[in-house]
Design a protein that fits this description.
Blueprint (H helix, E strand, L loop, with lengths): L3 E7 L5 H20 E6 L11 E7 L2 E3 H12 L1 E7 H6 L11 H13 L2 E6 L9 E3 L6 H14 L6
Parallel strand pairs: 1-2, 1-3, 3-5, 5-7
Antiparallel strand pairs: 4-6
This protein binds iron/sulfur cluster.
Iron/sulfur cluster binds next to helix 1 and helix 3.
Length: 160
């Protein structure tokens, strides 16, 4: 039986949308296990494979060069990339340092340089093409479920 191959990724953020997703599993896991192949989901399992994904759900903003490279890699490996939650969609609120005054920016520069941080924290769409957005802080459960149903149909996992 065909399954929707998904990956779930978290970058700079508080990971609350991941918690929302896990809570949704309490109710939906029995259905999802027959419809969804969780290829990459580090909160759920140790063996993860990010290649050949139908959908990559990406939570969080991009704060450093390592995250930027990983995001580009995810983009190469998925058919559809979906930004999950406000930080991924708009950068906020994880991008607070973008709005520091110049004195505070100067103070943190050493840390930024030392840990490979970018000059600014960016939403996903400033770095790669984003196909869809699930807004909210954390993500809206209702919107996520609606979109997931739509993707299951779109990828031919359930009948349209
Ligand atoms: S959008 Fe809100 S809940 Fe989600 S990671 Fe950012 S701060 Fe946390």
């Amino acid at each position: 039986m065909k399954k929707l191959k998904i990956g779930w990724f978290s970058f700079t953020c508080c990971e609350d949308s991941t918690i929302v997703f896990l809570e949704l599993m309490n109710e939906h896991y029995k259905d999802w296990i027959n419809l969804i192949d969780f290829k990459y989901f580090r909160t759920l399992k140790n063996n993860n494979d990010m290649t050949d994904l139908d959908i990559a759900f990406v939570e969080g903003a991009i704060a450093n060069y390592k995250e930027e490279e990983m995001l580009k890699e995810i983009r190469k490996n998925c058919k559809k990339l979906v930004a999950i939650g406000s930080c991924a969609c708009t950068g906020s609120p994880s991008n607070q340092r973008n709005f520091f005054d110049s004195e505070t920016k100067e103070e943190i520069q050493l840390i930024l340089d030392r840990f490979g941080h970018r000059d600014k924290v960016s939403p996903l769409s400033e770095i790669v093409k984003v196909d869809d957005f699930v807004s909210g802080c954390p993500m809206s459960e209702e919107l996520f479920l609606k979109k997931l149903e739509q993707y299951l149909k779109e990828f031919g996992v359930v009948n349209a």
